[in-house]
Request: fold
Amino acid sequence: MNNRFYLAPFQGITDAIYRVSYHKYFGGFDKYFAPYISGTGDVKVAKSKLKDVWPEYNIDTPTIPQFLSKDANEVLLLLEAFSALGYTEANWNLGCPFQKVAGKKRGSGLLPYADEIKSILHQVKDKGIPIDLSIKMRTGYKTDRDIFPLLDVFEEFDISEIIIHPRTGIQLYKGLASADVFEECLSKTTHSLGWNGDIVDLKSFNTLSQRFPNIYLWMIGRGALSHPGLALWLKDPNLYNHEDFKEKIFNFTKDIYDATLTRTQGINQVIDRMKPIWLYLSRSFSDPNAAFRRIRKTTEAREYLLAVEETLKNEILLRPDELNS
Ligand SMILES: Cc1cc2nc3c(=O)[nH]c(=O)nc-3n(C[C@H](O)[C@H](O)[C@H](O)COP(=O)(O)O)c2cc1C
Reply:
């Protein structure tokens, strides 16, 4: 089976503007997961809450909406809302590790409660909403054993894909994603599993794909935010063209800049939005500090645009096969 690549969601970074521009200039991904949308209790989900996944903002981009919830009614309302927008898949976030989320038993905080997850799935699946449910999860909250009773629960339900980021919630991003725990999961499920975590270059991908020859779903986050040519290269190196890649980065960031400017209050907000994007992108240059330094200091539009031009003119952009973790 051919590998399929998914762009991981990043709250605050990979909004619709980012995803659409990414797909337009770089591609390489089969699905673009939107950052999570939280449930709103028993109240019908307001249209404005769904703005990031409005079809008119996601044109030509294979977008998957994601939600965060610990309540069956809420999940039903979200699935109905996504389905009404025309989506055929929605992704349940069972991975968010941050205290303000996990502390309220949501995201990775719900993972220790297999019975509650089972009850939610029963109530949701009974309603037969015409939308596939996929799951993105960590291996547990405090312990990576949480996942095993959950895989048993999932066997009872129709779940289109399960993407596992094999870290615990309390681990945040420390340590390595555990290939050993992922391997244990493989033998405990009949669902399609995907890997997420620490694919940042060819070496990290090759190590995983050799170890898991039957896995063909790969979700990439930070590595793809850093080098937007990585997924395309992994798909087929011949699709990647280094000659025009800097120009693509220029156009990509310019589109985000322009589109953000039309949707936000002021230039400061736009520049603040561009900086984390550039912080990631700078890692695909031979000298990441030099690549980010000029942009980091800017506060005005003209200064920012000049810094981008200077960076692209003076700094050396690496090809995906030159990245080295
Ligand atoms: C700032 C930030 C925001 C994130 N937002 C989300 C989110 O909304 N939904 C989600 O499922 N994961 C979110 N993640 C996790 C990433 O999607 C991904 O699972 C994680 O970075 C591990 O993959 P990677 O090693 O390929 O980056 C976020 C991570 C970061 C650092």
Summary: Strands lie at 4-7, 31-38, 63-68, 89-94, 132-140, 162-168, 193-196, 217-220.
